[in-house]
Structure formats: C-alpha cells, structure tokens
Amino acid sequence: MKENVEHIYSSIKTRILRGEYPPSSKINAKKLSESFGISRIPIRDVINRLCGEGLVQKGSNGRFLVKPLDEMDIRETFELRAILEGHLMIEAAANFGTDDIELLEENLKQQEEAKNNIERTIQLNAEFHEYFYKATENKKFLGILKGWDDYQYRYDRINWLLNGSILTNLTISQHREIVDAVRKRNGELAQKILKLHRGTGAEFLVRAFRESKDFTFPLSDDNHYGSTIAF
Fold first, then answer.
1. Rounded to whole angstroms, how far apart are CA atoms 46 and 195?
2. Are 142 and 225 members of one domain?
3. CB count, 10 Å around CB of 121?
4. Hey, which of 22, 77, 109, 188 would disulfide with 231, CB 3.0 to 4.6 Å?
5. Global pTM?
6. String of b and e for 144-183 (b: at least 16 CB within 10 Å)?
7. Are residues 69 and 23 in contact, defined by beta-carbon separation less than 8 angstroms?
8. Structural domain containing residue 33
9. What is the pLDDT confidence band of residue 59, given thresholds at 50, 70 and 90?
10. Which CATH number does the domain housing residue 47 bear?
11. 181 in the same domain as 120
12. Closest Cα partner for 66 from 139, 6, 12?
C-alpha cells in the first residue's frame, strides 16, 4: 500500500512539474481516486503533501488546485535562489580544478547541441547548476537548495516552454560567462553573473505572466517544441 501511494504521489507531482496539470487547474480527489483505483484518504494525504511542497494550494472554496503563477512568488523564488547560488560561485572559484572546468565545458557543449530539445535543455541546465552544489560542504545549505529543486524546475520548464530559443541562447551565453569567471578564479564576478542570470530568468517569466495570465505554451511528447497546452 505504501509503495502504491508513493507511486501516486510521484505520478501527480510529475504531471504538475511537466505542466500536464497546469497552474490554477483543479485537483479533484474523487476523480484521482477513481483513476488510480484507490480510496480518497491516501489521495488526500498525497494532495496535502504536495501542498506542503508549495505545488498545490487550497482555494477559498475549499477545493484544491495547482498553485497559480504569481509575480511576487516568481521574483522571490529567483532572487533567493540567486543569493544562495551566488555564494556557491565564490566557493567554486576557489575550489574547482581543471577536471571540474572540463565537466562544465562538456555540459556547455551539450547545451549547444540540445538547443531544439527542450527536455534535454532543461536537464542540462539543472546539471550545470548542480556542479556548483558540490563546491559546498555545508549540508544544511545544500539541503535548502535541493529542497527547492522541484519548485524551481516547474518555473524553469514553464519559462522555456514560453520563451524557447531566445531564453536558451541567452542562458548558454551567461553560463559560459560564469565558467570563464570561475576559470579565472574570480568568484565575485561569477557571483555577479549568476545573480544577473537568475534575474534574467525571472524577468522573462514575469513578462510572459503579465502579457497573458491564460498561458499557452508548447508541449509535445517527442521532447521538442511542438503542440500547445493552455493554462
């Protein structure tokens, strides 16, 4: 039973992160229990767990819905991420060796090759930032960052689906500037570029949010920019 509930939790969470359950869409416990062939009690436990992770919220009518996009939340998420990751840039510049730089260079090469593959682009972006996680031995610090990964992934995925190649090209350019700064052991410059990088991501997403709160973005099963799904 426990394994089944974990599977349901993972399945619903994945659908939220991938946009299959878009922001502001309703989470119907009855329909989910029927779909998974399980009682509503464990479904509600899963929903409450997702509420605790900030992916689902309870509406004024008492019903649950996927957390809507909110400009202030977007800005705060990217800003706090920039502050924490900015600290990693200082450590990386001091601790990274030749092998570490080579791994980052290989990641950048793969980013260039994967420009038209959104799933691969998002994966490589996450891996790029994870290299810097390894620069800290502060477990609590690392725990905070890792705890936000799914939340950040949701915003990053929406961002790429909405802004496509423009965001991809700018991201790769800023990543390369970060690597160049770390190679020169200039942690302060790397930190400055990282904060600009996160700020750029926030501005792209906020602009799209302001232009249309009924988002429509590309989504396809073949991992390329394709058909559309509306929020």
1. 35
2. yes
3. 24
4. 22
5. 0.81
6. ebeebebbbbbbbbbbbbbbbeebbeebbebbbbbbebbb
7. yes
8. 2-66
9. confident
10. 1.10.10.10
11. yes
12. 12
